[in-house]
Amino acid sequence: MNNQMGYDGRHGNRLIGAVGASDKLKDLVLKAKDYENFTFYDDVSGKELPKELTLKARQTEMKQVYAHNKVYYNVPLQKCDDITGEEPVGTKWLEINKGDEDDYNRRARLVAPKES
Fold it and tell me: Is the pTM of this model over 0.85?
């Protein structure tokens, strides 16, 4: 699954899912070196986005969702199946430039994609 997510452009090197392989909030820091061969695109226009600004937007979202709202904690995958009888819900990043190409206003949101 990790290889497929990388192929699909859903994360960078050494990452599992949306975040790094850690259960500590202080370790949820995105590192540019993990995204060396990664290109980000606007989910509306399809235009390429600046890597540094995109990573900054993702980091802001992670701090808000995980640290501030305290919705992140690591549990074994089997626990999800034991409690719900289902696999965990997947995630993906939606990234949009709400500004223009001269004045970027990057937004990144971690979402659960709609299943088909």
Answer: no
